[in-house]
Design a protein that fits this description.
This protein is α+β, with helices and mostly antiparallel strands. It has 12 helices and 13 strands. Helix 1 runs antiparallel to helix 11 and helix 2 packs antiparallel against helix 3.
């Protein structure tokens, strides 16, 4: 997702988060990529009929009117946009007793996979928030001694790359030397299976290891820790979470991602914290390698001296877009810094604009 799309989506979500319905009268509609619009329209028309059963007259009329606005909006499209469509409608009037039905819609930056219709006191925004949080790619490994599935998490999409089975037998009841020989045989088969899984991981992850934000590993019991030792060192260094799981098939990949949501969110936040810590560290030790404030940063950009431009999301969207274009014309990276961290708040207090420089300049 480019910076412009990210900014637009963040602003869209923030604006809708402020809206509260007096009753369950705010309508949220998600149309997945490739889904037929006529089916969505027919569904909303059916919901209009159901809404006539709402007891409260004001709520009933607001829901019916909101659904009508959604239907009219959908009729403006000849077909579903490539990434789907998210539509929200409801009474946004601040004054009690007033009615002001507004409709909001956005074509998301990455494909929607879920169809939703919901009436509530708030708009359903989780699917859009997910697109903001995890756009980087993560490697996924779920395994035990008998089965393994390798995949990639990209945005909200889980892509299965390979599924393997081992043929390693389960528990064997026997006594004496037979038991020991059988145990050694099983352990040998398990180790061979671990090596096979590791080879697949090498094939899927190593070619793009620099673009891989992290690796999630999961499975039942201690098996995953035993397997961990057979992974390539580059992949080991990328592991950000190891989770206990029951399943090791495709559903195990979904469970692994679900259990790692907090870790993934922290990873995204940590990126911001690290770059801001670098800025403040340079500011304290070698202040001529950084600059901040509108005029000094623009001057450094025009000189081609900026390595990384740090922009607070508190700035006007048009200003951010202008600065990004200027930065990219001189080969500088642009990092959008949220207000969710202490460091992000500090950047806002510095005027919302800072830069790490390629070389020292007189300021």
């Amino acid at each position: 997702m480019d910076l412009k799309a990210k900014l637009q989506l963040k602003k869209f979500i923030r604006d809708l988060e402020k809206i509260r319905g007096r009753h369950t009268e705010l309508v949220s509609v998600y149309v997945p990529a490739g889904y037929e619009l006529i089916k969505v329209i027919q569904h909303l028309q059916e919901e209009q009929g159901t809404a006539k059963n709402i007891k409260d007259a004001k709520t009933r009329q607001n829901v019916i009117d909101s659904l009508e606005r959604c239907i009219r909006h959908l009729r403006l499209f000849k077909k579903t946009p490539p990434n789907g469509l998210a539509i929200f409608a409801g009474n946004v009037a601040a004054q009690e007793g007033k009615v002001d039905i507004h409709i909001f819609s956005i074509e998301p930056p990455t494909p929607l996979k879920t169809r939703i219709y919901r009436c509530d006191q708030i708009f359903v925004l989780d699917l859009l928030r997910d697109q903001l949080e995890h756009q980087e790619a993560y490697g996924l490994i779920v395994m035990d001694r008998r089965e393994a599935t390798i995949g990639i998490l990209k945005g909200t999409a889980i892509i299965v790359k390979e599924h393997l089975t081992s043929g390693v037998p389960g528990k064997f009841k026997a006594g004496g030397q037979s038991s020991q020989r059988f145990h050694r045989l099983i352990e040998g088969m398990a180790i061979e299976f671990y090596k096979r899984i590791a080879e697949v991981c090498n094939k899927e992850f190593l070619p793009g290891i620099k673009d891989l934000k992290g690796v999630l590993l999961g499975g039942p019991g201690p098996t995953k820790e035993s397997f961990h030792e057979y992974l390539n060192n580059e992949i080991k260094r990328k592991i950000v979470a190891i989770q206990d799981l029951t399943y090791t098939d495709e559903s195990g990949l979904r469970h692994l991602v679900d259990k790692s949501r907090d870790v993934l969110a922290k990873e995204a936040v940590m990126d911001e914290i690290k770059i801001m810590e670098k800025f403040f560290g340079l500011l304290a030790k070698t202040p001529d390698r950084v600059t901040y404030g509108n005029i000094p940063v623009r001057k450094a950009l025009e000189m081609g001296a900026v390595e990384t431009l740090l922009v607070s999301e508190s700035l006007d969207t048009r200003v951010i877009e202008e600065l990004e274009v200027l930065a990219s014309s001189f080969g500088a990276a642009t990092k959008l810094i949220s207000l969710d961290t202490r460091e992000g708040q500090q950047l806002k207090e510095l005027g919302g604009l800072a830069a790490i420089l390629r070389y020292a300049i007189s300021q």
